[in-house]
Amino acid sequence: MAPEYVSDGLLSIKSDVFSFGVLLLEIISGKRSSGFQHNGEFYNLLEYAWELWKDRRSNEFIDQSFGDDDEMEELMKYLAVALLCVQEKTIDRPTMPDVVAILSSDGITLPEPK
């Protein structure tokens, strides 16, 4: 759930963006966001994704069943979009029309997720 909903009970159009980002992270990683376990410790999937992103080890987050290296660049784009969608502050998240534009465009420069 979006942080603003959990803390204040507020919903907005950016709450849906947050949920989309979580779903995208689950698809990319092949893991559920709740009850995610790594090396015997329970993690929040979002925290794990952010940790790997900050450490420049994002390729470790992507499910290996995706296969070849040709898909890796596209998957990294999806991961960046997902992280933009799950940023804590609603103002930092893109709108869904922005997300659609990013996903349907090639060569677009993405802002760095915060």
Structure description:
The chain has 114 residues and is mainly α. It has a single domain (3-103), classed as Transferase(Phosphotransferase), domain 1 (Orthogonal Bundle). Helices cover 48% and strands 5% of the residues. The chain has 5 helices and 2 strands. It has helices at 3-8, 13-29, 45-54, 72-85, 96-103; strands at residues 36-38, 41-43. Strands 1-2 form a two-stranded antiparallel sheet. α2 packs antiparallel against α4. Pfam families: PK_Tyr_Ser-Thr. InterPro entries: Kinase-like_dom_sf (IPR011009), Prot_kinase_dom (IPR000719), Ser-Thr/Tyr_kinase_cat_dom (IPR001245). This is Protein kinase domain-containing protein. Residues 1-108 form the Protein kinase domain.
Q: Largest sheet at a glance?
A: 2 strands, antiparallel
Helix and strand succession? HHEEHHH
Q: Which structural class best describes the helix and strand composition?
A: mainly alpha
**Which residue ranges are poorly predicted, with pLDDT under 50 across at least 5 consecutive positions?**
none
Counted up, domains total: 1
User: Mean of residue pLDDT?
Assistant: 85
Strand content: 5-15%
CATH superfamily: Transferase(Phosphotransferase) domain 1
Summarize the helices and strands and which ones pair or pack.
Elements: H1 3-8, H2 13-29, E1 36-38, E2 41-43, H3 45-54, H4 72-85, H5 96-103
Antiparallel strand pairs: 1-2
Helix pairs in contact: 2-4
